[in-house]
Design goal:
23 strands; 48% helix; disordered C terminus; alpha/beta
Amino acid sequence: MQFYVQNLCVYFPYKIVFPEQIQYMYILKKIFDKKKHGITGIPPGMGFCLTTISFFISYNFFSKKKKKLIYCLRRENEIECAIAQSEMFLSQFTVYSLEKDFIIKPSIMALYDKTKLCLNPIIKNDSILDEVEDFCHSLLSPYFFSKKKETFFPIEKKKETGIITNNESKCFFFTNYIHKRKKIFFKGIWTIFKLRNFGIKKNFCSFFLSKDIFVRCDVVISHIYQIFFSETFSSLNKKLTNCSFLIFDNIFDLESLNSLFFSVNIDPLVINDCQRGIFLLKKNFYWSQKISIKKKNFNFFFIELFDSDSLFSDNIKKVVFWKNFFNKNKKRLNFFFNFSQQKNKKRRRIQRIFHNLETIEQIVFFFKEILTKTIFQKWDPIEFVNCFLKKFFIYETSITSINVLVNFLSNLFCLLGFFNFRKMNGFSKILEFLKLIWINSETYNQNFIIFFSLENHKFPLLLEPCLEIICTETCLLFKSFFENFSSVIIISNNLSNLPFLFFIIDCKPKIFGKIKNFFEKNFLFSVFFNIKISNLLNKMDKIKKKKENQNNKYSIFLNKIIENIPEGIVCIFPSKFHIEETLEEWNKEKFLNKIFKKTKIFFENADILENLFFFDQYKLCCDFGIKALFISIYGGFLSKANLSLHFSRAFLLIEPDKIGKNSRLDLLTKKSIFFNKANYFYEFRKFYVKEELGRLLNKHFKSKKNFGVFFVFGKNKKFFEDDGQTKFWKFKTSVEKNNQIKHIIKKIRFFFLNKYINF
């Protein structure tokens, strides 16, 4: 089928076109016309790879200057699928116009390795790429050596013959291809079967054939490593790169280019892990407190030595007593830092152990001080080394002694055997961080930069501070993409990592929003975040009074939940009308002023970016222990994108069922089983604090906490199957409790899988 996109006739291979695909074509035309870089978010499963190829072929056919499209995919099966679809639909097609009909035969190819394209019978399919490269270079070395020799010592050209001379390569396929490549027709769609079959029929090297096709073809589909980290990319001139478009199918391709990019980062979780390890070393291994009978106030510590003969002898085990290691005084400093002057080898060895432990503890405190700052900072490795040495000149340590600390920790953990079931990731990350800084400070490598930011790139919604080393060599590679190519397009569903990346690259591309909006219904409403109560009351006076008894029960129940639960609450209403009615009831009971004083309320909005901001602020309130309430609607932002139990002690799903005399909500409000009597409420919470339910919930919902409280109101989904007299938390046997819990969890999973979570 054919249609016009801003006066451009576009051939589309399918019979049906989705509106998201047309919207995507409009974005591509804007980027191609203005020769700018762009970022778009697209939903998966819409066939955007074939739409970009078909749009580019029609765009390139009607443009005066011919251009090239390089489309980078993540997996080999996706590349093969794209080539097969283009061979099926885009091998040859006609574009009808008023003046003349045009027949278009595009040239599309995919890049492959030498292991798949080499026709030499010695090489097998299971062979490694490095071995194939070495074998190929050994065969082609005479040809390239003679070619270089002719540049320095020019010789008269001889007539071309089919006989292989000593100056030519030893590969028959390569020599035959060089003599006859001028007669090859490069157009068409080249799959791996066509390349191999063509090479077998003509006795050509299919790999070098693919390199020539790469220069002349219109569209290239490949993995990012096969294009930019191989010899094929060097064959492109600057003129070709300036006239070519580069499309990344996902941002993860950019992040996976180099292992050092965002590799070593230090955040509060690492520091907490280090402090936990130091505490365990102090408590369980080396130190135990002993109170003497005569002097009860005098506390001192002694070494709890082990049976290993490698460190200590039997005589020292009985005698050695040390003063408090944790008090900072001059005697302690002299004792631990002058261990080299000790004549006794065993005593000197013990002092060296405590000196290393003290330095590790101080390194952890050094990084903890950096993470408590509120200012964005940037260092070179040399600057960071100078800052580190100013702090640690008292302890007679330098960054060169980090290797000694690494060996010390590894030997100590192996000797004690206590950490067999626990990985000390915190210590290893900090020492790797210092190792990298030391190496790059000595080599004066300015491509490494140390950043301290208040936002962690891996968990952007948590807003945790992070200290990380960034290799700007990969960033320079990204920068070369943006400078050399006429337009670079990045397709991603997660746009949270991009601002920090483009801050490093110093590039400002056009950022388009997500193409498909995931809101299903039209009952979204305006924002009530941090507004005055008077404005809110004026709006409520206009609303008609309906179902006063039902709304009164909803509001009473919500009031008691907010009073009793100190942490975050997530509440999902069926519509905007239910929220307005509950707010009106809060106004009648004069409870609205108390809520705005004690808690922060966040309402869902039609704007995606504002919802992200509100949800981040809600999570921050939960982290700091502030009462927060996030109110959402069915089918909205929370239920589709970010529905989780990470930051919710109470999760309320309110359904629009009518409240009758025998309904579950009526029983709760009349008898006030849970909330009118504090004892029953705490018993209810204690039951949910138990580890059995917490483990069962964590199997299905990943949560930071050990438990979560769930409420659902409605006739269809009753999670509480008990009557008013029998309490849910008072089962006699553990089997009855487990059966009840399993029944609840089955309903929770069924509810989430069918409605709110897209796995």
